[in-house]
Specification:
By secondary structure, this protein is an alpha/beta fold. It has a single domain (8-244), classed as NAD(P)-binding Rossmann-like Domain (Rossmann fold). The chain is built from seven helices and seven strands. It has helices spanning 17-28, 41-53, 68-82, 106-134, 155-175, 201-209, 219-230, and strands at residues 8-11, 32-37, 57-62, 87-90, 137-142, 180-187, 241-244. A seven-stranded parallel β-sheet has the order 3-2-1-4-5-6-7, sandwiched between helices. Helix 5 (155-175) links the parallel strand 5 and strand 6 (180-187). Helix 1 packs parallel to helix 2, helix 3 (68-82) runs parallel beside helix 4 and helix 4 packs parallel to helix 5 (155-175).
């Protein structure tokens, strides 16, 4: 038995990559995990199957996190099965355009900003009642080092995640008195993710060369930082950012 036994975690965008690794690790540490997905139902069920085969408890829940009604239905589904959500890991990747500012339209930049914050706002608003009722909760947002360290073509992602991080800090200030912590995990480049597939081998070699620890992050590296924030060891930490980047950026 562990400190986390019986607690309920919702991981958005958990059918692959960072989300799947996080779901696996939280389940391994005793949490019941709701594996959110939008399009990849078979992959989400594989994550659930792996958790259950290892003796954990999990369920796949479909929802577009940008849609209020869908999120409410998802959270109610989890509540009906297990009760309120204790831990929210908001990881779902909202689509974005990779291009320069000069080539970008407002719809591409503004759309990403709107969708990023709308999703975080909607999911957080929906899980908060159960957390405030219990006087305890953990909220972890997955951001990116691009929010502080610009890279060519990534203005839409970097700008929207910078907004998400400030949103998280305001929530940390407001929700702290209610026993709810809000923290950010900001990975550098992560191998074996959909974003990584957008770049060629030469690009990856340059990223590795710029990383003091000599490799890119793996989803499991990010998952361990998330699990720290979800657990008891981070009890007196809120409004903070964990940079999981192997030293590529130091702040």
């Amino acid at each position: 038995m562990t400190e986390a036994t019986g607690r309920v975690a919702l991981v958005t965008g958990a059918s692959s990559g960072i989300g799947a690794a996080t779901a696996d690790l939280l389940a391994e540490r005793g949490m019941r995990v709701a594996v959110n997905y939008l399009h990849s139902g078979a992959a989400a069920e594989e994550v659930v199957g792996g958790i259950e085969s290892a003796g954990g408890r999990a369920m796949a829940v479909r929802a577009d996190v940008r849609e209020v009604a869908a999120v409410k239905t998802m959270v109610e589904q989890v509540r009906a099965e297990w009760g309120g959500i204790d831990v929210l890991v908001h990881n779902a990747l909202i689509p974005f355009t990779i291009k320069s500012f000069q080539d970008m339209t407002w719809e591409e930049l503004g759309g990403k900003l709107n969708d990023e914050l709308h999703a975080a706002f909607t999911v957080t608003k929906t899980v908060l009642p159960a957390m405030t009722e219990r006087g305890r909760g953990r909220i972890i947002y997955i951001s990116t080092g691009l929010s502080r360290r610009p890279r060519e073509g990534m203005i839409a992602l970097g700008t929207s995640k910078a907004a998400l991080e400030q949103f998280a800090r305001y929530l940390a200030q407001e929700l702290g008195p209610q026993g709810i912590t809000v923290n950010i995990v900001a990975p550098g480049p992560v191998a074996d993710t959909r974003i990584a597939d957008e770049f060629d081998e030469a690009h990856t070699r340059r990223q590795v060369a710029a990383t003091p620890l000599g490799r890119l992050a793996h989803p499991a590296d990010v998952a361990r930082a998330v699990a720290f924030y979800a657990g008891e060891d981070s009890d007196f930490m809120t409004g903070t950012t964990a940079a999981v980047n192997g030293g590529m950026a130091m702040y």
